[in-house]
Design brief:
Number of domains: 2
Strand content: 25-35%
Largest sheet: 5 strands, antiparallel
Oligomer: single chain
Radius of gyration: 22 Å
Helix content: 40-55%
Strand order of the largest sheet: 1-2-3-4-5
Order of helices and strands: EEHHEEEEHEEH
CATH class of the largest domain: Mainly Beta
CATH architecture of the largest domain: Roll
Number of strands: 8
Amino acid sequence: MSNNQDHQSSDWPEFEGQRSDERLLFVFRRHMISMRKGFYLLMIPVVVTSIPPLIWQSNLELFLLPIGGLILGLILFSYHFILWYFTVYIVTDQRIRQVTQKGFFGKDVIELRLSKIQNISYNIPGFTGEIFKFGTIVIQTFVGDLVIHQVEHPDETYNKLQDAVNNAVKLQGDYEEVNN
């Protein structure tokens, strides 16, 4: 598949917390557009520190300011990149595992059993969502909703999630039928 954010099980053979009887189906991340604040924090210091050398062109030391602005911008951007890169959604044949990076050292993990999912829906938020191919996926359970904002190719991810849930419900029905 051409989607570089969507990994097949051969790219991710196993993950932390994987059970021995569990098979990885796919992994996905949020769209890169979710890092737009990081891009702004990269560009603003560069632009602001580029103004003094443009005004006072005879002062050569001022030409070092944009380099400092770039370094500061890269540091700020790297924080947002780390948050984006290490936040993943892992779908196995039994569950969905959301691993959310919180700062440099913290993380939150949420799991939903596929057989407990009642409904899945997706939304593409207008023109920008259509152009950049991102949207929101809502996974509904008895307990509450898991809302995943800014998912890349939400229609493809939705279809894969629907297939995974249907297979899990079918397997659970077969399991209950055998045990009765």
